[in-house]
Design brief:
The complex is a heterodimer of chains A (about 140) and B (about 180). Chain A is about 50% helix and about 0% strand. With about 140 residues, chain A is mainly α. Chain B folds into two domains: about 1-80, RNA polymerase Rpb7-like, N-terminal domain (Dna Ligase, domain 1, 2-Layer Sandwich), CATH 3.30.1490; about 85-175, Nucleic acid-binding proteins (OB fold (Dihydrolipoamide Acetyltransferase, E2P)), CATH 2.40.50. Chain B has one helix at about 20-35, and strands at about 1-15, 40, 45-50, 55, 60, 70-80, 85-95, 100-105, 105-110, 120-125, 130, 140, 145-160, 160-165, 175. Chain B: It is found in: Nucleus. Chain B: Belongs to the eukaryotic RPB7/RPC8 RNA polymerase subunit family.
């Protein structure tokens, strides 16, 4: 006697485009929102009143952003965003460049694949801008 | 990735709170209801940025036959949602022979031993257990507390939680040195 696997019909809603950071697809819920640097989150969290900090999600996030923040004051973070804006980057690319602080062109291209369409000179200029600002803040 | 996202929340208010400063109560209730929660759609809600004065609170509607009033509150919050293909920095929280877990804020990412470079071998004898290589010139070790750079290769969202798996086999991923 043969067993047939039951056929399951799944009714799918309109096929949604798959979210993929490498292709700069973030879904309609997020593509129009503001993408934050880790350093910006760290600065924003400093302003949150203590009474709102009593949950694990908050505490774990605070730990993370304080560990990996690269730019430590309002001024340098604002300057960084302004400088990177000139390179006409996607919001995600801009945030990732600020978060990961790459040193080599290949590193940037590998970690943020969508940058591959830019020329090496352009990427070099972006990385130089970031490292200059990183040195300047003290 | 971290975002600032505008979100909505519905709050029902008991008639006992129909007072002059019911907004304060609504704000507190909002913080309590949404902060620290996670939904598959919007990710983790880390903190509401709006205060009592800046929240948009709709006109209350009394629900027939119950007496509670319902308010629609619009607020801005910092949210965190991981995406496939995103590269993140995290801290290793647990190591075992199947792989390791890393904390990226509220999110836990699992990196299977198949997605760890071959030369890093699991060493259960060490305390804490770790993945380490034997080469002397480029010694690398992954143990609890190590900072790692991970590429997210998959995410799974359910109603109240997010799961992610990552790889450190890609170029420029793995143990973060310096800084």
């Amino acid at each position: 006697m043969s067993h047939h696997a039951p056929i399951i019909h799944r009714s799918r809603k309109a096929p949604q485009e798959e979210e993929d950071a490498a292709k700069l697809k973030f879904g309609e819920d997020f593509e129009d929102e503001e993408f934050l640097f880790i350093s910006e989150v760290a600065l924003l969290l400093e302003k949150i009143p203590d009474s709102q900090k009593n949950n694990t999600v908050y505490k774990k996030t605070e730990e993370l952003v304080n560990t990996f923040t690269r730019f430590h004051n309002d001024e340098s973070v604002r300057e960084l965003r302004k400088t990177l804006m000139r390179h006409k980057l996607h919001k995600y690319e801009l945030a990732q460049l600020a978060n990961l602080v790459c040193e080599e062109i290949d590193e940037a291209k590998s970690l943020i694949p969508s940058l591959a369409k830019r020329s090496d000179e352009e990427i070099r200029a972006m990385l130089d801008d970031i490292s200059a600002l990183k040195k300047y803040q003290s | 990735m971290f975002f600032i996202k505008k979100l909505h929340h519905t709050i029902q208010l008991h008639p006992a709170f129909f007072t002059q400063n019911f907004e304060t109560y609504l704000t507190e209730k909002l913080y309590k209801d949404v902060e620290g929660t996670c939904t598959g759609r919007f990710g983790y809600v880390i903190a509401v940025l709006d205060t009592n004065e800046t929240l948009e609170i709709s006109q209350g509607k009394v629900i027939p036959s119950v007496g509670l009033a319902e308010f629609e509150v619009a607020y801005r919050a910092i949210v965190f949602k991981p995406f496939k293909g995103e590269v993140v920095d995290g801290v290793v929280s647990q190591v075992n022979k199947m792989g390791f877990f890393a904390d990226v804020g509220p999110l836990q990412i699992f990196v299977s031993s198949h997605l760890i470079p071959q030369d890093l071998k699991f060493d259960p004898a060490k305390n804490p257990p770790c993945y380490a290589n034997n080469s002397e010139d480029s010694y690398a070790v992954i143990e609890k507390g190590t900072h790692v750079r991970i590429k997210i290769v998959g995410t799974r969202f359910d109603a109240t939680d997010i799961f992610a798996i990552g790889t450190i086999k890609d170029d420029f991923c793995g143990v973060v040195t310096g800084s």
